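In keeping with the milestone schedule agreed at the kick-off meeting, the structural modelling team has produced records for the first pair of proteins. Each record is given below as a sequence line and a structure-token line. The laboratory manager (R.T.) confirmed that both were archived under the project's standard naming scheme.
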Amino acid sequence: MPVSKRFLSLVTFQLAQFADRDDVTSLVVYVTEPGGTGAPDLIPVGQWPAGGRALPPLRTDDSRRSPADRRRWLALRHGGVLLGALQIETTTVPWPAPLQQRLQAVSQCLTEGLCLDLEHRRLQLQLSLQQDQLKVLLHQLRNPLAALRTFGQLLLRRLEHDARNRPLVEGLLQEERQLQRYVDAIDAIAPRSDQLAPGPEASPLLLPPGLDGDPEEQLEDRLSPLVQRAAATAALQGRPWHGPAELPQWRGDSSAVAEIVANLLENAFRYSPPGCPVGLHLRPGTGGQESCQLCVWDGGPPIPLEERERIFEPGARGRSSLELPGTGLGLALARQLAQRLGGTLVLEHHPTALDPAFPQQGNVFRLSLPPTGEAPRAGGHSAAG
């Protein structure tokens, strides 16, 4: 059971008050930790006198857990749950009434402190998970906002001499900029600096359950708008776009696949140099374990070998993109969604080895999907809230 620095300070203060008792020789505070046999182990977190040697944990079969001639234990228990224990060694047994009362008061104080510590940690963990999901939603929200801006700018070009409809498009672009300011403002809200670090049970940065898709929805229906968005972005940026000749006939959590492809395309347009080609390529599966492969590629400088796995970690970014806007969440989210679907997402080292049509140098992110019907149902990829 992890404890906070505040609880450790409480332990130190509570134990130090026995310095006036000549009949108390040793005090040790333990907290519980799940043991291998089902019974909890006891982990020492504080002792008096403070200069004593470091104490090892007490496993379930340790003889020191039993009372000895002048050693006694007081359980730190709440609601039938053992949270820890206070070990007391004295020169006199049974204890005098004043010592008995003081020890009981200390054990009660430490029990309440542990309860508050656990509740504080639970709330901080919940807050951390909510902040993670908020970051993911904000990251994903930027993709459709960018698409609205792109389509609006292209439409504005076409309506250059249309005095009647041009103000409508200009108004739409103004609203998009206002929405973008709201997103930036929410993203700038900093988390509290004194919160406890999330424990190992913290969920990965997956999409919240409310964004689950229809498991019967055709993937091509979700990818078609992304292809249109990419073509419009390429036209606005003046770069070549290579779209797929056809879209896959795949059924499953198409919503998650669309989120993956949207992130990959956004990264390709954002981080490859101006004028470099970008494409989405469909390849059939290579065996019985794959239904199809979706490859998003760009003709920019290849990502260094030493960064090709690190960029899939949450918050990690390549050296060449540090000065560009971004959160480092897109690839981490994309890979986690791919794995939860039963597929894989990798960055290929040699694009032309995957397909001769790819550029000699560049980056190819290959998303491999499981056969239709074998992917987990929608909802399996969402973080538990």
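The second protein of the pair:
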Amino acid sequence: MRGRFYILHYRPNELDTARLGVVAAKKLAKRANVRNLVKRIAREVFRRQREAVPCMDLVVRLHAPVAKATRAELNLDLHALLQRLPRS
């Protein structure tokens, strides 16, 4: 599923908890510190919502340039994507 800045790929797993992978391409975030910030924000949002996320393997991928994005916008985008995950 797609948000404003992130794409979230998901697949159910057989574990007791959800797992997360994060990808931030150089094409969309030129500087290493920006890529690291994007990944750090994604991991923190996931950490805070981990109990509410169904048992799935998640891959969060950047799909829009984040040069003008604020941290709050990145947080809200990923938070909204995690809320849209199918619950089963």
